[in-house]
Write a structure and sequence with these properties.
globular, 2 domains, 415 residues, single chain, five-stranded antiparallel beta sheet, mainly beta, disordered N terminus, four-stranded antiparallel beta sheet, Methylamine Dehydrogenase, Chain H
Length: 415
């Protein structure tokens, strides 16, 4: 019997005393004494290992090559009626910053920095009713005048029923950090509960929290927040008490003076910390090409690496590891730059810069005031291979919530 393309398959294995058995696909077995010796044996193994490596790599690369090389931005909801979206305007969606959901199918929770609220959306951008109002209020610092709005930034989902309690027996399902220097938790009702207040009455010494995430050390949960003013990553235990992980925790000598932690994101148990340049008041970032860094730490704060630095960083904030079916940048690390609105891609293993995410017309995809980048949960928050974003458009006065998805069948000059 002859096989397609004149290929005959063989099963090769090594017998005792240097004997080699060759079994072909016709069932005939030949036996001969190997004269090649140890060197030939080694050459065979090297060739076989190379073949096996290429075969395994092809399993990962072929799906990527078959996917799209460009990406489409789809706007789902805004506070502005002038922006075309499939959903009605939401007046609370102003400077939407943090974005999270539970792994188990919850809707999106968005932290609205310019309205002091959190609004909930499905993966299609439809508002999810809650408390009869459709939103949750994040409280301002203690003693604030009536009518004062808080300024939420990062938001974290907490799935533990016994950690981060905001009342006896009631754990915070969602935790908010604010530029006011506060941390609040929500268990139910119309308002989150203030649990940490480091605002210092709004003084120039008060904390300014720009981002938040959670992580574990030896099975114990912790909350991490980036204090932009003090240029530190603060760590809190499950009782919302600040803990000290040591003098070297979250220290990176390569970060220049004048840059501060901007955001922090837990990706697979590793903490990615973005850095931006501080303004004179150490409250806001200074935008500019090359003004930013992304450092990588363990949950205990040990510095273990960084993404390649370069002009592609411009006040980086959002960080996400992509799925294996996300087009050209599958299995990559995406970093959203608030300063430029561009999304930089990095190799997930070498941390080297790969390029910018591009639109269908081959231009660099740019989203004004870009903040979060997060994938759905295959539940109410949409497909797990759809990337969702938030943006504080028009100088952070307005808001936009939408998706970024691969587009098939493009040659770079047509949609």
């Amino acid at each position: 019997m002859r096989y397609p393309l004149e290929i005959r398959l063989h099963q090769i294995f090594w017998g005792p005393a240097g004997q080699k058995f060759v079994s072909n696909t016709t069932g005939r077995v030949s036996h001969r004494k190997s004269r090649l010796g140890r060197d030939s044996h080694m050459r065979f193994k090297v060739k076989f290992c190379k073949f096996l490596l290429l075969f395994v790599l092809s399993l990962f690369l072929l799906p990527v090559l078959a996917q799209a090389q460009h990406y489409k931005q789809t706007n789902l909801v805004s506070n502005l009626a002038s922006i075309s979206t499939p959903n009605p305007p939401d007046p609370n969606l102003k400077n939407p910053w943090g974005l999270t959901r539970s792994p188990g199918g919850s809707p999106w929770w968005v932290a609205n920095n310019n309205s002091g609220t959190s609004t909930l959306y499905s993966g299609t951008g439809a508002a999810i009713p809650i408390n009869g109002t459709g939103n949750v209020t994040v409280p301002p610092p203690m003693g604030s005048p009536a009518g004062t709005q808080s300024t939420p930034t990062g938001v974290v989902f907490n799935g533990s029923p016994t950690d981060f309690l905001v009342a006896p027996g009631k754990s915070a399902h969602f935790i908010f950090a604010t530029e006011d220097g506060t941390i609040s938790g929500w268990n139910g009702g119309q308002n989150a509960v203030l649990v940490v207040d480091n605002s210092d009455n709004g003084s120039a010494n008060g904390a300014v929290y720009k981002g938040a995430t959670s992580g574990e050390i030896n099975g114990h949960k912790f909350l991490y927040v980036t204090n932009f003013r003090s240029a530190k990553v603060e760590v809190y235990d499950t009782n919302f008490k600040r803990v000290n992980l040591g003098e070297e925790a979250f220290i990176a000598e390569e970060i220049p003076h004048g840059f501060a932690p901007f955001n922090i994101q837990n990706i697979g148990g590793t903490l990615f910390v973005t850095y931006a340049k501080q303004d004179a008041a150490r409250h806001d970032d200074v935008a500019g090409d090359g003004l930013g860094f992304v450092q990588i730490f363990t949950p205990a704060g040990r510095n273990i690496g960084h993404l390649q630095h370069g002009p592609w960083f411009n006040s980086p904030w959002g960080v996400v590891w992509t799925t294996r079916d996300f087009g050209e940048f599958s299995n990559a690390i995406l970093v959203g730059n608030f300063g430029s609105g561009r999304i930089a891609a990095f190799n997930g293993f070498t941390y080297k810069f790969m390029g910018f995410v591009k639109s269908p017309d081959d231009s660099i995809l740019t989203i004004d005031g870009l903040w979060s980048l997060t994938f759905g949960n295959d539940g109410t928050a949409g497909p797990a291979n759809t990337l969702f974003f938030t943006a504080g458009i028009n100088g952070e006065q307005d808001g936009l919530f939408g998706t970024i998805t691969p587009v098939d069948g493009l040659d770079g000059d047509e949609e």
